[in-house]
C-alpha cells in the first residue's frame, strides 16, 4: 500500500502543473466564450459553430504533440536524451508543415459553410473569426510540440507559467479587440480571433526563449537545429501520431456533428450547447492533465521494464480521476443555473443549458475513466485497437442514439447529449477492459 501511495504522489506531482497547463489553454476558449457571450446570443452561437469546425483540425495538432511526448518520454526513460532532442527537432519540422496544411484546410472550408445550414445570422459573422484562428495554427502547433517535449522530461513548471501569461495576455487583448478600447473599433467575434492569434504567437516566442536558455533541458536539445529531417524519426512520429489523431477526430468529430445537428433546433439551443461544451471541456482538463502524467509515467516504466509499477500508476490515477470528476459532477447538478447565468442573460439559453449540464454531470464521470485508460494504453504504444473502439462507440452508437433521441423522441439538444453520454460509457468500459488485459502481460 505504501508503494502505491508513493506512486500516486509522484503521478499527482507531475500531473499538477499539467492540469494547470491544460486549464490555462482552456481558459483561452473560456474567456472568449464569456466575453463574446456579452456581445449577444448570435455572436455566442457563431463562436459555437466556428469552434466546432476548428476542433477537427486541432485534433491533428494534439495527435502530433502526444506522439512527441511519448517518443521523448521513452527516450528519456531509457537515458537517451540526444534521441529525445531529435524527436523535438523533427517534431517541430512536422508541426510547421502540419500548421500550413491546417490553415489551408480552414480557409478552404469557409466557402462551404453554407452547406451545413447554420442560422443565417451566424453564417454572416463567422468567416473572419475562422481566418484569424486558422492563421494562429502557425504558432499553436509548434507551441504544443515544445510543451510536450518539456513535460515528457518532467519539466512542466516554466511551460505552465508561460501559458498562464498567455491567458492573461489574451484576456487583455480580448477586452481591446472585442469591445473596442485605445482607439481600436469594437470587433465582436472577429476581435476574439485577433486576440487569440496575437496571444498564441507571443506565447510561442516566450516558449522558444525558455527552451533555448533552460539548463535542465540543455542536454536534450538538438546539437544541430538546421539540417535535413531524419526520415526514420519522422516516420516514427507520423506512424504514432496518425492513430492518435484518428482517436481525437473520432471523438471531436462526434461533437462537431452534434453541434451541427443541434444547430437545427435554433440559435438558443446552439448557444446552450456551446456553454455546456465549454464547461465540460474545461473540467475535462483535470483528468486530461492527469492522463498526460499517466502516459509519461507509464512510458518511463515500460522503457525500464517495471510491470508492477505500471499497475500501481494506473490504479492510483483512476482513483484520483473518479474523485476529481465526482466533484465536478456535483457542481453541475447543484450549480447549473448559476453557471449558465454567468455566460448569458438570455433566459431561454439558461434553461436549455441547465438541462444539458445535468447530463454533463454523468458524462464527466465516464470521461474521466476513459481518458486515463486511453492514456495508459498510449504509454504502452497501444493505439490502433483503442482507435477502433472509439469509432464504434461514438459513430455507431453515440451519434445514432443521440439523433434518435434528439429528433425522433423530440428531446432536442438534451437528446444529442444523452446519446454522447451512452457512447462514452461504452468506450469507458471497453478501454478499461483492454487496459487491464494489457497490464497482465507487461
From TrEMBL:
TM segment ranges: 53-76, 88-109, 129-146, 158-180, 186-212, 248-269, 275-298, 319-343, 349-366, 387-409, 415-436
Main location: membrane
Position of the signal peptide: none
Keyword Metal-binding: no
Membrane topology of the entry: Multi-pass membrane protein
Keyword Membrane: yes
Keywords: Antiport, Cell membrane, Ion transport, Membrane, Transmembrane, Transmembrane helix, Transport
Pfam family, one: MatE
InterPro entries attached to this UniProt entry: MATE_fam (IPR002528), MATE_MdtK (IPR050222), MdtK-like (IPR048279)
Localization annotation: Cell membrane
Entries under NCBIfam families matching the protein: matE
Protein name (Swiss-Prot/TrEMBL): Multidrug-efflux transporter
Gene source species: Thalassobacterium maritimum
Amino acid at each position: 500500500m505504501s508503494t502505491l501511495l508513493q506512486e500516486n504522489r509522484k503521478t499527482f506531482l507531475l500531473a499538477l502543473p499539467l492540469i494547470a497547463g491544460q486549464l490555462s489553454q482552456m481558459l483561452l476558449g473560456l474567456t472568449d466564450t464569456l466575453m463574446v457571450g456579452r456581445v449577444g446570443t448570435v455572436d455566442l452561437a457563431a463562436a459555437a459553430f466556428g469552434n466546432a469546425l476548428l476542433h477537427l483540425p486541432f485534433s491533428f495538432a494534439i495527435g502530433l504533440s502526444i506522439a512527441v511526448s511519448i517518443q521523448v518520454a521513452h527516450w528519456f526513460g531509457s537515458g537517451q536524451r540526444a534521441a529525445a532532442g531529435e524527436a523535438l527537432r523533427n517534431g517541430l519540422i512536422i508541426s510547421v508543415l502540419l500548421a500550413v496544411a491546417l490553415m489551408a484546410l480552414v480557409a478552404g472550408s469557409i466557402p462551404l459553410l453554407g452547406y451545413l445550414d447554420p442560422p443565417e445570422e451566424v453564417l454572416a459573422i463567422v468567416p473572419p473569426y475562422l481566418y484569424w484562428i486558422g492563421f494562429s495554427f502557425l504558432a499553436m502547433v509548434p507551441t504544443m510540440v515544445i510543451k510536450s517535449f518539456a513535460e515528457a522530461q518532467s519539466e512542466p513548471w516554466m511551460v505552465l507559467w508561460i501559458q498562464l501569461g498567455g491567458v492573461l495576455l489574451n484576456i487583455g487583448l480580448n477586452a481591446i479587440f472585442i469591445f473596442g478600447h485605445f482607439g481600436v473599433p469594437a470587433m465582436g467575434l472577429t476581435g476574439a480571433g485577433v486576440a487569440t492569434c496575437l496571444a498564441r504567437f507571443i506565447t510561442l516566442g516566450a516558449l522558444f526563449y525558455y527552451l533555448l536558455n533552460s539548463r535542465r533541458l540543455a542536454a536534450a536539445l538538438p546539437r544541430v537545429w538546421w539540417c535535413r529531417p531524419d526520415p526514420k524519426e519522422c516516420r516514427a512520429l507520423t506512424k504514432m501520431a496518425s492513430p492518435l489523431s484518428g482517436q481525437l477526430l473520432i471523438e471531436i468529430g462526434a461533437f462537431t456533428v452534434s453541434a451541427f445537428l443541434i444547430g437545427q433546433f435554433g440559435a438558443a439551443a446552439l448557444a446552450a450547447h456551446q456553454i455546456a461544451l465549454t464547461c465540460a471541456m474545461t473540467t475535462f482538463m483535470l483528468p486530461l492533465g492527469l492522463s498526460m502524467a499517466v502516459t509519461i509515467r507509464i512510458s518511463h516504466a515500460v522503457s525500464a521494464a517495471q510491470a508492477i509499477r505500471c499497475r500501481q500508476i494506473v490504479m492510483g490515477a483512476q482513483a484520483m480521476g473518479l474523485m476529481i470528476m465526482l466533484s465536478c459532477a456535483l457542481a453541475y447538478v447543484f450549480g447549473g443555473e448559476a453557471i449558465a447565468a454567468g455566460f448569458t442573460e438570455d433566459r431561454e439559453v439558461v434553461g436549455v443549458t441547465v438541462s444539458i449540464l445535468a447530463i454533463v454531470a454523468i458524462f464527466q464521470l465516464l470521461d474521466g475513466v476513459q481518458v486515463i485508460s486511453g492514456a495508459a494504453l498510449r504509454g504502452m504504444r497501444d493505439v490502433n485497437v483503442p482507435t477502433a473502439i472509439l469509432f464504434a462507440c461514438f459513430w455507431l452508437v453515440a451519434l445514432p442514439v443521440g439523433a434518435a433521441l434528439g429528433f425522433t423522441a423530440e428531446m432536442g439538444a438534451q437528446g444529442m447529449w444523452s446519446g454522447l453520454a451512452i457512447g462514452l460509457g461504452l468506450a469507458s468500459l471497453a478501454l478499461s477492459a483492454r487496459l487491464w488485459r494489457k497490464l497482465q502481460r507487461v
